[in-house]
Design brief:
The protein is an alpha/beta fold. It is 46% helix and 15% strand. It has 2 domains: 5-209, Aldehyde Dehydrogenase, Chain A, domain 1 (3-Layer(aba) Sandwich), CATH 3.40.605; 211-395, Aldehyde Dehydrogenase, Chain A, domain 2. The protein is globular.
């Protein structure tokens, strides 16, 4: 049931009153409460993990195994050291900063970490927080605040979790009317609309549609390295069923290694089958299933007559498409990935430049401590990617594990909200 304007106003008043009592508390105390709450989730027998696994699949569409994986990925990043590093990098002297009086958080719900992180950032700033849930994930944020209450009830009272339909603009206006800052996640249209509704003097952090890709250097294409590389690539492409902005849509594989790009595609398919057996893909909507079936049919038809195209498919679960056309192709998601050969790694920017403004993360072959020349080449190339507009370059296998302090979409998490 949707919140009412009156409920939103009451929640704002309550969180603001609680914030006054929290302002005197030390940042270390707040960090300790957040980190302890995260530890409570990670425990194998955690009641919070169990409740998420029971409740979240229905709204998120993820399998129970994926929800279990999501709990680990989300909360293992919320440690004392991670919070300390975040504050040190963005704030400096923690005794002399103030956050906004009220932050309005509009959550997307496609993957859990941004929602939980956003709430944590608001609490680190000692702000009052109004959280608008997403229909795609009403479970994780609400459970997180409930679990925080078990550790620190006063801090939890600085957060009000509410829900209403996207089209109920008057409720969004009520939440935004007094908000000194807005943190919003969603598609580009949602971000544009919320920016329009927000106060002109409010700080607005909007995170719209983004995607990822990965690049494999020829040095990694060896019989010894390929199994681990394929497993790492599979993790990045399969976690959250490719729904997040960190998920790779395509893997560019450099030619000239001991093994060919097509052999990488075959190894990737094998690893994706193994991951599917352990962590099944979630339930598809009718529209998602239709898009995948159409794409699969088109590439099966092409592969029958064109040797530059190959296809590996799990039974209604995943799809690996090998295609020699080097132009970047956006996936229809849900574990559908493209593998594209490329003569030289350094030529990749020309094929991805049209999508540069939407690139969040690029995974790249991990550097080898024993190969200084290779490391220099990869490091130089990573620098070129950032000049292109890529916000984050990391090793393949780490795309879905960003540190808490990473600059989401190239922006700091706290610095723009701090006085």
């Amino acid at each position: 049931m949707s919140a009412t304007v009156e409920q939103i106003k009451e929640a704002i008043q309550h969180t603001r009153e609680t914030r006054k009592r929290v302002l005197h508390r030390s940042t270390d105390e707040i960090i300790g409460a957040l980190a302890q709450t995260a530890r409570n989730w990670i425990e194998p027998a955690s009641p919070w993990r169990r409740r998420a696994v029971e409740q979240a699949p229905a709204s998120t569409g993820f399998s129970t195994q994926m929800i279990n994986e999501a709990v680990t990925l989300t909360f293992e990043a919320l440690t004392e050291d991670a919070f300390e590093t975040l504050l040190r990098r963005e704030v400096g002297d923690r005794r002399q900063f103030y956050g906004p009086d009220l932050i309005a958080h509009f959550l997307a719900g496609n993957v859990p970490p941004p929602s939980i992180n956003s709430i944590c950032f608001g609490l680190l700033l000692k702000s009052a927080n109004i959280v608008k849930l997403s229909a795609h994930d009403p479970v994780f944020p609400a459970l997180f605040v409930e679990s925080l209450r078990e550790v620190d009830a006063e801090l939890a009272d600085c957060v009000a979790v509410l829900d209403w339909r996207r089209e109920e603009t008057e409720l969004a206006r009520a939440a935004l009317a007094d908000a000194d800052a807005v943190i919003a996640y969603g598609d580009d249209d949602t971000i544009t609309e919320l920016r329009r509704l927000a106060r002109t003097d409010a700080t607005f952090l909007g995170y719209g549609h983004k995607l990822g890709l990965a690049l494999v250097g020829r040095e990694a294409m060896t019989p010894r390295a390929l199994p681990a590389l394929a497993e790492a690539a599979t993790f990045d492409a399969s976690v959250y069923d490719q729904q997040g902005c960190l998920s790779p849509h395509a893997f560019y594989v450099e030619e000239g290694g001991e093994l060919s790009p097509c052999e990488f595609a075959a190894a990737l398919a094998g690893a994706m089958a193994a991951y599917q057996a352990r962590v099944p893909r979630g339930q598809l909507t009718v529209e998602e299933a239709a898009r995948i079936a159409k794409l699969r049919g088109a590439y099966e038809f092409r592969a029958a007559a064109d040797k530059s195209v190959a296809l590996w498919a799990g039974p209604a679960s995943w799809l690996v498409i090998y295609e020699e056309d080097p132009m970047f192709t956006v996936s229809c998601l849900n574990r559908v990935v493209f593998v594209k050969p490329i003569k030289h790694l350094e030529s990749a920017p020309q094929f991805i430049r049209p999508f540069a403004s939407n690139l969040s993360t690029v995974g790249i072959t991990p550097m080898n401590p024993a190969l200084s020349g290779v490391n220099e080449r990869i490091e130089t190339f990573a620098t070129e990617l950032t000049k292109l507009g890529v916000n984050r370059v990391c090793p393949i296998g780490r795309m879905q594990r960003p540190p808490l302090w990473w600059y989401h979409d190239g922006r700091p998490n706290l610095a723009e909200l701090v006085r």
